[in-house]
Amino acid sequence: MNIGSTLYRKAMTAVAANRAVKRLTLRYGRKLARRFVASDHLQGALREVAALNRQGISATMDALGEGIGSLEEARAYRDEYLKLLDAIADSGVRANVSLKPTQMGLALDAEACIAHIREIAVRARQYGNFVRIDMEDSPYTQATIDMTVRLHRAGLTNVGTVLQAYLKRTVGDARDLIEAGVPLRLVKGAYREPAAIAFERKADVLASFRSIVKLHLDRGAYTAIASHDDAIVGWTKQYARQNGIAKDRFEFQMLYGLRMSEQARLAKEGYRVRCYVPYGTMWYPYYTRRLAEKPGNLWLVAKHLLR
Protein backbone atom coordinates (compact mmCIF):
# COMPACT_ATOMS: atom_id res chain seq x y z
CA MET A 1 0.00 0.00 0.00
CA ASN A 2 1.17 3.53 -0.57
CA ILE A 3 1.59 5.95 2.34
CA GLY A 4 -1.74 7.67 1.67
CA SER A 5 -3.67 4.38 1.65
CA THR A 6 -1.94 3.23 4.81
CA LEU A 7 -2.77 6.46 6.64
CA TYR A 8 -6.38 6.34 5.41
CA ARG A 9 -6.83 2.78 6.64
CA LYS A 10 -5.28 3.55 10.03
CA ALA A 11 -7.46 6.64 10.43
CA MET A 12 -10.67 4.80 9.48
CA THR A 13 -9.83 1.89 11.76
CA ALA A 14 -9.26 4.27 14.67
CA VAL A 15 -12.52 6.12 13.99
CA ALA A 16 -14.49 2.87 13.74
CA ALA A 17 -13.12 1.74 17.12
CA ASN A 18 -14.44 4.88 18.84
CA ARG A 19 -17.41 3.94 21.02
CA ALA A 20 -19.37 7.09 20.26
CA VAL A 21 -18.93 6.59 16.50
CA LYS A 22 -20.01 2.97 16.79
CA ARG A 23 -23.08 3.89 18.85
CA LEU A 24 -24.17 6.57 16.38
CA THR A 25 -23.52 4.35 13.36
CA LEU A 26 -25.52 1.48 14.81
CA ARG A 27 -28.37 3.85 15.56
CA TYR A 28 -28.50 5.81 12.32
CA GLY A 29 -26.28 4.07 9.77
CA ARG A 30 -28.20 0.91 8.85
CA LYS A 31 -29.43 2.31 5.54
CA LEU A 32 -25.87 3.23 4.61
CA ALA A 33 -24.62 -0.24 5.50
CA ARG A 34 -27.14 -1.69 3.06
CA ARG A 35 -24.68 -0.68 0.36
CA PHE A 36 -22.57 -3.68 1.43
CA VAL A 37 -25.00 -5.88 3.42
CA ALA A 38 -27.78 -7.61 1.51
CA SER A 39 -30.41 -7.83 4.25
CA ASP A 40 -30.99 -8.11 7.98
CA HIS A 41 -32.61 -11.48 7.39
CA LEU A 42 -31.99 -14.75 5.56
CA GLN A 43 -35.00 -14.57 3.26
CA GLY A 44 -34.07 -11.10 2.06
CA ALA A 45 -30.52 -12.28 1.34
CA LEU A 46 -31.85 -15.27 -0.60
CA ARG A 47 -33.88 -12.92 -2.80
CA GLU A 48 -30.72 -10.94 -3.55
CA VAL A 49 -28.86 -14.14 -4.42
CA ALA A 50 -31.66 -15.26 -6.74
CA ALA A 51 -31.38 -11.93 -8.56
CA LEU A 52 -27.62 -12.41 -8.92
CA ASN A 53 -28.14 -15.93 -10.23
CA ARG A 54 -30.36 -14.55 -12.99
CA GLN A 55 -27.33 -12.52 -14.14
CA GLY A 56 -25.15 -15.62 -14.22
CA ILE A 57 -23.48 -14.82 -10.87
CA SER A 58 -23.15 -17.37 -8.07
CA ALA A 59 -22.87 -16.41 -4.40
CA THR A 60 -21.22 -17.25 -1.14
CA MET A 61 -23.47 -16.31 1.78
CA ASP A 62 -22.21 -15.05 5.11
CA ALA A 63 -24.34 -14.80 8.26
CA LEU A 64 -22.52 -11.86 9.83
CA GLY A 65 -21.00 -12.21 13.28
CA GLU A 66 -17.55 -12.24 14.89
CA GLY A 67 -15.84 -11.53 18.19
CA ILE A 68 -18.48 -13.38 20.22
CA GLY A 69 -18.41 -13.52 24.01
CA SER A 70 -19.74 -16.99 24.78
CA LEU A 71 -20.03 -20.50 23.36
CA GLU A 72 -23.79 -20.10 23.55
CA GLU A 73 -23.47 -17.40 20.89
CA ALA A 74 -21.26 -19.73 18.84
CA ARG A 75 -23.90 -22.45 18.98
CA ALA A 76 -26.52 -19.96 17.83
CA TYR A 77 -24.38 -19.08 14.80
CA ARG A 78 -23.82 -22.78 14.10
CA ASP A 79 -27.57 -23.25 14.07
CA GLU A 80 -27.99 -20.25 11.76
CA TYR A 81 -25.59 -21.81 9.26
CA LEU A 82 -27.40 -25.13 9.39
CA LYS A 83 -30.61 -23.22 8.70
CA LEU A 84 -28.87 -21.32 5.90
CA LEU A 85 -27.72 -24.52 4.18
CA ASP A 86 -31.24 -25.95 4.42
CA ALA A 87 -32.64 -22.75 2.92
CA ILE A 88 -30.14 -22.76 0.04
CA ALA A 89 -31.11 -26.34 -0.77
CA ASP A 90 -34.85 -25.62 -0.50
CA SER A 91 -34.69 -22.46 -2.62
CA GLY A 92 -32.43 -23.89 -5.30
CA VAL A 93 -30.19 -20.80 -5.47
CA ARG A 94 -26.58 -21.22 -6.61
CA ALA A 95 -24.70 -20.43 -3.41
CA ASN A 96 -22.28 -21.85 -0.89
CA VAL A 97 -21.46 -20.45 2.56
CA SER A 98 -18.64 -18.53 4.25
CA LEU A 99 -18.11 -18.31 8.00
CA LYS A 100 -15.60 -16.85 10.45
CA PRO A 101 -13.75 -19.05 12.95
CA THR A 102 -14.19 -16.58 15.82
CA GLN A 103 -17.91 -16.63 15.08
CA MET A 104 -17.81 -20.36 15.85
CA GLY A 105 -15.84 -19.86 19.07
CA LEU A 106 -12.17 -20.10 18.04
CA ALA A 107 -11.04 -17.44 20.54
CA LEU A 108 -12.92 -19.21 23.36
CA ASP A 109 -12.51 -22.95 22.75
CA ALA A 110 -10.72 -24.27 19.66
CA GLU A 111 -12.20 -27.77 19.98
CA ALA A 112 -15.74 -26.43 20.30
CA CYS A 113 -15.09 -24.25 17.24
CA ILE A 114 -13.97 -27.15 15.06
CA ALA A 115 -16.91 -29.25 16.28
CA HIS A 116 -19.32 -26.50 15.20
CA ILE A 117 -17.70 -26.17 11.78
CA ARG A 118 -17.65 -29.96 11.38
CA GLU A 119 -21.42 -30.07 11.88
CA ILE A 120 -21.88 -27.36 9.27
CA ALA A 121 -19.55 -29.10 6.81
CA VAL A 122 -21.35 -32.42 7.24
CA ARG A 123 -24.69 -30.75 6.54
CA ALA A 124 -23.20 -29.01 3.50
CA ARG A 125 -21.80 -32.30 2.20
CA GLN A 126 -25.27 -33.86 2.42
CA TYR A 127 -26.44 -31.19 -0.03
CA GLY A 128 -23.33 -31.32 -2.22
CA ASN A 129 -22.42 -27.85 -0.97
CA PHE A 130 -19.23 -26.14 0.18
CA VAL A 131 -18.03 -24.26 3.28
CA ARG A 132 -15.41 -21.50 3.14
CA ILE A 133 -13.64 -20.74 6.43
CA ASP A 134 -12.83 -17.04 6.20
CA MET A 135 -9.43 -15.78 7.29
CA GLU A 136 -9.40 -13.19 10.04
CA ASP A 137 -6.48 -11.19 11.46
CA SER A 138 -3.04 -12.68 12.03
CA PRO A 139 -3.50 -14.09 15.59
CA TYR A 140 -5.85 -16.65 14.01
CA THR A 141 -3.98 -17.42 10.77
CA GLN A 142 -2.21 -20.62 11.80
CA ALA A 143 -5.15 -21.93 13.82
CA THR A 144 -7.46 -21.43 10.84
CA ILE A 145 -5.09 -23.24 8.49
CA ASP A 146 -4.58 -26.10 10.96
CA MET A 147 -8.32 -26.49 11.47
CA THR A 148 -9.01 -26.58 7.73
CA VAL A 149 -6.34 -29.23 7.12
CA ARG A 150 -7.66 -31.26 10.05
CA LEU A 151 -11.18 -31.26 8.61
CA HIS A 152 -9.80 -32.33 5.22
CA ARG A 153 -7.92 -35.22 6.75
CA ALA A 154 -11.17 -36.27 8.43
CA GLY A 155 -12.76 -36.57 4.98
CA LEU A 156 -14.53 -33.19 4.84
CA THR A 157 -12.98 -32.10 1.56
CA ASN A 158 -15.90 -29.71 0.91
CA VAL A 159 -14.15 -27.21 3.21
CA GLY A 160 -11.71 -24.52 2.08
CA THR A 161 -10.14 -21.40 3.53
CA VAL A 162 -8.69 -18.03 2.52
CA LEU A 163 -5.16 -16.70 2.12
CA GLN A 164 -4.23 -13.02 2.33
CA ALA A 165 -1.61 -11.78 -0.14
CA TYR A 166 -0.39 -8.96 2.10
CA LEU A 167 1.00 -11.42 4.67
CA LYS A 168 4.62 -12.31 3.98
CA ARG A 169 4.03 -15.95 4.94
CA THR A 170 1.30 -16.53 2.37
CA VAL A 171 3.30 -17.92 -0.57
CA GLY A 172 4.58 -20.71 1.65
CA ASP A 173 1.10 -21.37 3.03
CA ALA A 174 -0.28 -21.53 -0.51
CA ARG A 175 2.25 -24.18 -1.54
CA ASP A 176 1.45 -26.31 1.50
CA LEU A 177 -2.31 -26.04 1.12
CA ILE A 178 -2.24 -26.78 -2.61
CA GLU A 179 -0.28 -29.94 -1.78
CA ALA A 180 -2.95 -30.81 0.81
CA GLY A 181 -5.71 -30.29 -1.77
CA VAL A 182 -7.38 -27.48 0.17
CA PRO A 183 -9.49 -25.11 -2.00
CA LEU A 184 -8.41 -21.51 -1.47
CA ARG A 185 -9.84 -18.05 -1.94
CA LEU A 186 -7.09 -15.50 -2.56
CA VAL A 187 -7.54 -11.95 -1.23
CA LYS A 188 -5.33 -8.93 -0.61
CA GLY A 189 -6.24 -8.68 3.09
CA ALA A 190 -8.45 -6.23 4.96
CA TYR A 191 -7.08 -6.19 8.52
CA ARG A 192 -4.52 -3.83 10.02
CA GLU A 193 -1.28 -5.78 10.44
CA PRO A 194 2.26 -4.76 11.52
CA ALA A 195 4.94 -4.19 8.91
CA ALA A 196 6.98 -7.06 10.35
CA ILE A 197 4.52 -9.61 8.98
CA ALA A 198 2.67 -7.77 6.19
CA PHE A 199 3.63 -5.90 3.04
CA GLU A 200 2.73 -2.21 3.22
CA ARG A 201 3.54 -1.10 -0.34
CA LYS A 202 0.77 -1.65 -2.88
CA ALA A 203 3.29 -2.90 -5.45
CA ASP A 204 4.50 -5.60 -3.06
CA VAL A 205 0.94 -6.75 -2.28
CA LEU A 206 0.11 -6.94 -6.00
CA ALA A 207 3.30 -8.87 -6.72
CA SER A 208 2.49 -11.33 -3.94
CA PHE A 209 -1.10 -11.71 -5.19
CA ARG A 210 0.02 -12.42 -8.77
CA SER A 211 2.62 -14.94 -7.65
CA ILE A 212 0.01 -16.88 -5.64
CA VAL A 213 -2.50 -16.87 -8.50
CA LYS A 214 0.23 -18.04 -10.88
CA LEU A 215 1.20 -20.82 -8.48
CA HIS A 216 -2.39 -22.07 -8.44
CA LEU A 217 -3.00 -21.85 -12.16
CA ASP A 218 0.32 -23.45 -13.06
CA ARG A 219 -0.39 -26.40 -10.76
CA GLY A 220 -3.94 -26.84 -12.06
CA ALA A 221 -5.51 -26.00 -8.70
CA TYR A 222 -8.97 -24.43 -8.99
CA THR A 223 -8.46 -20.79 -8.16
CA ALA A 224 -10.86 -18.34 -6.48
CA ILE A 225 -9.51 -14.83 -7.10
CA ALA A 226 -11.21 -12.34 -4.80
CA SER A 227 -10.34 -8.84 -5.98
CA HIS A 228 -11.95 -5.73 -7.45
CA ASP A 229 -8.60 -4.49 -8.69
CA ASP A 230 -8.38 -4.24 -12.48
CA ALA A 231 -4.65 -4.90 -12.20
CA ILE A 232 -5.41 -8.35 -10.76
CA VAL A 233 -8.48 -9.18 -12.84
CA GLY A 234 -6.90 -8.08 -16.11
CA TRP A 235 -3.63 -9.85 -15.39
CA THR A 236 -5.44 -13.10 -14.53
CA LYS A 237 -7.47 -13.03 -17.74
CA GLN A 238 -4.36 -12.38 -19.82
CA TYR A 239 -2.29 -15.06 -18.08
CA ALA A 240 -5.06 -17.63 -18.54
CA ARG A 241 -5.37 -16.83 -22.26
CA GLN A 242 -1.63 -16.96 -22.86
CA ASN A 243 -1.27 -20.30 -21.09
CA GLY A 244 -4.38 -22.05 -22.42
CA ILE A 245 -6.11 -22.15 -19.03
CA ALA A 246 -9.85 -22.68 -19.45
CA LYS A 247 -12.33 -20.25 -17.90
CA ASP A 248 -13.81 -23.04 -15.76
CA ARG A 249 -10.49 -23.51 -13.92
CA PHE A 250 -10.86 -20.33 -11.88
CA GLU A 251 -13.45 -17.86 -10.68
CA PHE A 252 -13.54 -14.18 -9.82
CA GLN A 253 -15.06 -13.28 -6.47
CA MET A 254 -16.28 -9.81 -5.56
CA LEU A 255 -18.23 -8.23 -2.74
CA TYR A 256 -21.93 -7.44 -2.69
CA GLY A 257 -22.43 -3.72 -3.38
CA LEU A 258 -19.10 -3.17 -5.12
CA ARG A 259 -18.58 -3.11 -8.90
CA MET A 260 -21.84 -4.94 -9.53
CA SER A 261 -21.87 -3.97 -13.21
CA GLU A 262 -18.32 -5.36 -13.56
CA GLN A 263 -19.46 -8.63 -12.00
CA ALA A 264 -22.28 -8.89 -14.54
CA ARG A 265 -19.93 -8.02 -17.40
CA LEU A 266 -17.45 -10.73 -16.42
CA ALA A 267 -20.27 -13.26 -16.23
CA LYS A 268 -21.43 -12.29 -19.73
CA GLU A 269 -17.87 -12.82 -20.96
CA GLY A 270 -18.14 -16.43 -19.80
CA TYR A 271 -16.08 -16.17 -16.62
CA ARG A 272 -17.21 -17.76 -13.40
CA VAL A 273 -18.19 -15.03 -10.94
CA ARG A 274 -19.16 -15.41 -7.28
CA CYS A 275 -20.51 -12.56 -5.15
CA TYR A 276 -19.88 -12.49 -1.40
CA VAL A 277 -23.34 -11.81 0.07
CA PRO A 278 -23.43 -10.99 3.80
CA TYR A 279 -26.61 -10.64 5.81
CA GLY A 280 -27.66 -10.15 9.42
CA THR A 281 -27.85 -7.51 12.11
CA MET A 282 -24.21 -7.84 13.28
CA TRP A 283 -22.97 -5.75 10.39
CA TYR A 284 -20.80 -3.08 12.04
CA PRO A 285 -17.33 -4.76 11.90
CA TYR A 286 -17.84 -5.90 8.31
CA TYR A 287 -19.16 -2.50 7.23
CA THR A 288 -16.30 -0.55 8.77
CA ARG A 289 -13.70 -2.86 7.16
CA ARG A 290 -15.26 -2.13 3.77
CA LEU A 291 -15.03 1.62 4.41
CA ALA A 292 -11.43 1.31 5.59
CA GLU A 293 -10.27 -0.59 2.52
CA LYS A 294 -10.09 2.47 0.30
CA PRO A 295 -11.50 6.03 0.05
CA GLY A 296 -13.64 5.04 -2.93
CA ASN A 297 -15.84 2.86 -0.72
CA LEU A 298 -16.42 5.78 1.65
CA TRP A 299 -17.34 7.91 -1.35
CA LEU A 300 -19.94 5.34 -2.46
CA VAL A 301 -21.62 5.61 0.94
CA ALA A 302 -21.38 9.42 0.90
CA LYS A 303 -23.10 9.56 -2.50
CA HIS A 304 -25.86 7.31 -1.18
CA LEU A 305 -26.28 9.62 1.82
CA LEU A 306 -26.50 12.69 -0.41
CA ARG A 307 -29.21 11.02 -2.49
Automatic annotation (TrEMBL):
Superkingdom as given in the UniProt entry: Bacteria
Keywords of the record: FAD, Flavoprotein, Nucleotide-binding, Oxidoreductase, Proline metabolism
GO biological process: L-proline catabolic process to L-glutamate
Cofactor-binding details, from the entry: Binds 1 FAD per subunit.
Binding annotation for substrate: 100, 289-290
EC number: 1.5.5.2
Pathway connected to this protein: Amino-acid degradation; L-proline degradation into L-glutamate; L-glutamate from L-proline: step 1/2
Matches recorded under SUPFAM superfamilies: FAD-linked oxidoreductase
Catalytic activity: L-proline + a quinone = (S)-1-pyrroline-5-carboxylate + a quinol + H(+)
Gene3D superfamilies to which the protein is assigned, alphabetical: 3.20.20.220
The protein's name: proline dehydrogenase
Organism phylogeny: Bacteria, Bacillati, Bacillota, Bacilli, Bacillales
